Each structure stands twice: as C-alpha cells, then as structure tokens.
Amino acid sequence: MANEVESVRQLTSEIEGCISDAEGELLYRLAKAVPEGQAIVEVGRGKGKSTVWLAKGSEAGEKNKVYSIASHKGSPNHIKVIGQRTKDRMSKSRENHGEGRKK
Q1: First-last CA distance in the chain
Q2: What is the pTM of this model?
Q3: CB 59 within 8 A of CB 5
C-alpha cells in the first residue's frame, strides 16, 4: 500500500489544498475500505485535492462511485488528474445550473 499512497501523494502535490498528506492518506484508506455497492459523497470547498485521495482510494478498493459537491470550478491540475470526463461533467453541471448562460 505504501507505493499506492506515494503515487497519490505525487498526483496531489500540484493541487492546492488545505489537507495534509496524512489526512489524504486517511481519506484514501477510508475510501478503500467502503463496502461494495456504496457511494462516497464529499462536500468540499477546495480545488479537489481530497476528491483525488477519495477517488484513488475507491479505485484501489471496491471501485465505488465518488460524488464531490464543491463550490469551485477546478484548477488545471485538478482537471489533469481527474480527467476529461470530469471536466465535461462539470461543464454540463454549470450549464444546467445557469453558470454557463449569458445574461
């Protein structure tokens, strides 16, 4: 597991955030231990650093879905780490909630 955690540490090192590596590792371990068929929901305010820890922990465990509810639009590093699919979903969500509409 040490190698898995170190790879996530490297992924998250470029993402701004308030959580420490120790807190990230705890999120990783907790997400990895979530039983199959359950969902992980995070309500955040940062730029997705903790979301990456949760997603990677889930990926190493039962591959449960991770839902992140946040007030940010994501940073370039967040998009790079999570991938184009998340970027597309975020854009669609903003459109659905009026942020993409012209006034």
Answers
A1: 50
A2: 0.69
A3: no
pLDDT tens profile 24-79? 999 999 999 999 999 999 998 788 899 999 999 999 999 999 999 876 665 666 55
Look at residue 79 and tell me if it is in a domain.
no
Domain, as residue range, for 55: 2-72
CA distance 12 to 35: 25
- Position 74: which residue type? G
Give the contacts of 78 (CB within 8 A, at least 6 positions apart): 15, 47, 48, 49, 51, 52
Higher-scoring residue by pLDDT: 80, 59: 59
Domain count within the chain: 1
